[in-house]
Amino acid sequence: MPDGFNLDDAIRKVPDFPKPGILFYDITSVLANPDAFRYCIDQMVKLYKNERLDAVAAIESRGFVFAAPLCDRLGLPLILVRKKGKLPGRTIGKKYALEYGEAEIEMHGEDIPKGGRVLIVDDLIATGGTVRATADLLREGGAEPIGVFAVIGLPFLDYATPLAGLPARTLIEYYGE
Ligand code: AMP
User: Which of 28, 53, 137, 167 is 20 to 30 Å from 118 at the Cα level?
Assistant: First the structure.
């Protein structure tokens, strides 16, 4: 654990949520702990302060909470990736497969920097499906996704495969549910 902070202690684990068999890694306990939250933002700043970035795309809704202070600290534009029907302006969207059924995400097309380098931020990467759809949508909007950050990674769900070479960085990884 970098800098000696025990992030694992700050993450609430909730068995059988939202359905039986899923262990939910809950970051609301990180947000309620100022030392833990500041630790996460400080680590994000260290990881990305020397990276050439033009914007950050944050995934609804827990990704917003981590991306906003990063954008403030690094002076970067923040693009919100939302579920279909939430954004009021002209949007571009992408459908993607869930375990059961499908979902659709949207962004304001005019907020995507054309030719710009964009970092994707979420709280947790599980199967990587949401990040993959976000990266595809950024490309369709004319930007270059350069990587993804999530506080928590679940590599046993093989998110590296759908990310297809897009570098993923996490602060903590778990290997079971
Ligand atoms: P995925 O598209 O499978 O990578 O799912 C990513 C989204 O689902 C993230 O925005 C997470 O917030 C949420 N998620 C999936 N699995 C979990 C889990 N075990 N604990 C907490 N959040 C999860």
Answer: 28
This prediction's pTM: 0.97
Helix, strand or coil, per DSSP, at residue 158: coil
Cα(125) to ligand 1 centroid in Å equals 6
Per-residue tens of pLDDT for the chain, all 177 residues: 456 799 999 999 999 999 999 999 999 999 999 999 999 999 999 999 999 999 999 999 999 999 999 999 999 999 999 999 999 999 999 999 987 789 999 999 999 999 999 999 999 999 999 999 999 999 999 999 999 999 999 999 999 999 999 999 999 999 976
Q: How far is the CA of 61 from the centre of ligand 1 (A)?
A: 11
* Total number of domains constituting the chain: 1
Q: What is the residue with the minimal CA distance to atom 13 of ligand 1?
A: 124
CATH of the domain at 33: 3.40.50.2020
Q: Give the atom of ligand 1 at the shortest distance from the alpha carbon of 123.
A: 12
| Ligand 1 pocket, CB under 6 A | 22-25, 59, 62, 122-130, 159
Q: Which residues pair with 127 in a beta bridge?
A: none
DSSP character for 113?
P
